[in-house]
Amino acid sequence: LNPLTYRRYTNVAEKHLLPCFADTLLSDITDSMVSDFVKAKEAEGNSAATIDMAVRVLGKVLKEYGRKPIKVKIEKPVKNKEKKSDTVVMEKEQVRAMEQYLLTSHSSLTIGIFLSLKMGMTLGEICGLQWQDVDFDSETVSVTHMVQRVVNRETNGPKTKLILMTLENAGCRQIPIPASLFPLLQMEEIKTGFVLKEGENNMPDPRTIQWRFAKLMNILKMPEYNYNALRTTFAVRCIEAGMSLESLSCILGHANVNI
After folding, report:
1. Is a pLDDT exceeding 60 seen at residue 85?
2. Which residues pair with 194 in a beta bridge?
3. pLDDT tens digit string along 134-161?
């Protein structure tokens, strides 16, 4: 399991499964016991998605043990699509104002924002980008890693820690560098280590970039956009420009076009 999946499964196990099944042998767990577990979780007010995740994690544990899958029905509420929030996209005038400001105060944040705004990379992918992934000859960037903050389960040290995670399948991809961004990357004098420099070869922290972006929005007197608005703005502008959904899906690193 990758660290994020491991963290999610561990949280589910500690919060929901162990309090109920810690003293029960795996061989003794029955479908009716799991049904009772589901009813108890529903009575506690847990969402269908949370309960479904708990049952699926339990099923994976039983499968590792050699047991057959658990059969239990979970009532999922009908989703009201009208209540779904709209995709947050920055206005073109706001983007132009932000670009002008960044180009006059060049920093690692400038590169980071442009990688999202002009190439659709996620914040974690940008923090994990190293100069060895940038090919100036083919004018492409290889997205192979991402930085994530996970729970630190060591007894000593901080509660969380940064890890460099290797991407697989659709997440690992090559993206062409747009002409407007190419000169900015060439201007960087030190082309070793991480592209977003944080001290002496320190791994960039997504939280720090988010904080700097929020500060930038305040300076420019713009709405409190989430950093991911840069990526969604890129996607919408690509569609407006006539890019096919298949090509956009590949650039964004989605597993399929439906996403």
Report:
1. no
2. 130
3. 999 999 999 999 998 887 777 777 778 8
